[in-house]
Amino acid sequence: MDTHEEKVITAQFILLLGGARSGKSSFAERLATQSGRSVAYIATAQASDADMLQRIQLHQSTRPAHWQTIEEPLQLANAVQRAASVADVLLLDCMTTWLGNWLLAQGEHDLEASSLRSAHLYARVQAEAHSFLASIAALPSTKTLLVVSNEVGLGIVPAYPLGRVYRDLLGLLNQRLAAAAQRVYLLVAGLPVDLKKLQEEILI
Q: Do residues 6 and 177 lie in contact, with contact meaning Cβ atoms separated by under 8 Å?
């Protein structure tokens, strides 16, 4: 069980969730543009094949040319610090790709042999989440951080162990980020649903 105590986050932290092609990245970019402030885009994707390269190029073509771009596949806390030094609005796209990069970097390709391996991964990704949230808590209150992540828990259960571990890790990571964020939007067919507002209404 994770026992980390998170520091209070005073910067505006907004989490945007959704499935593939749900409109979450476009909505995040729209929020950043509408702010009228300087923007730094933290890109976690790596051009590992032709399809990914095409996706990266498409994203690059739709972003305003004056935005700062920071490419960082693994070191999120460092990327947040670098982005905050050059802009007021930080847009991280996305946690889903970061987790894939991170999981591959652990060298755990065969999880059939022991459930202890996946348990170690759970503990390590929680430590990464703590470090990331600490970097957000260190941001000045004048900064805004938009974080994009996928909701992958609504489809079929992956047929192979690594896929199941990835799905579970991302679900845990999203929960941790959602608890810390001031606003959480779920994008469905391009439409944002304010989850924190719904939670407030349910609690009344």
A: no
pLDDT at 114 over 60: no
DSSP, residue by residue, 1-12: ---PPPPPP-SE
Torsion angles phi and psi, residue 32, rounded to 5: -65, -45
* Residue 112, amino acid: E
CATH dotted code for 12-191: 3.40.50.300
pTM for the whole structure: 0.89
CA 103 to CA 109: how far, in whole Å? 9
Higher per-residue pLDDT: 156 or 97: 97
Catalytic residues: 59
Q: Determine the average pLDDT of the residues in 146-165.
A: 89
Contacts of 31 (CB under 8 A, 6+ apart): 14, 146
Instruction: Tell me what pLDDT residue 1 has.
Output: 46
Name 193's bridge partners: 186
What residues contact 59, with CB distance under 8 A and at least 6 apart?
Answer: 25, 43, 45, 93
Task: Give me the residue label for tokens 């755990």.
Answer: 108
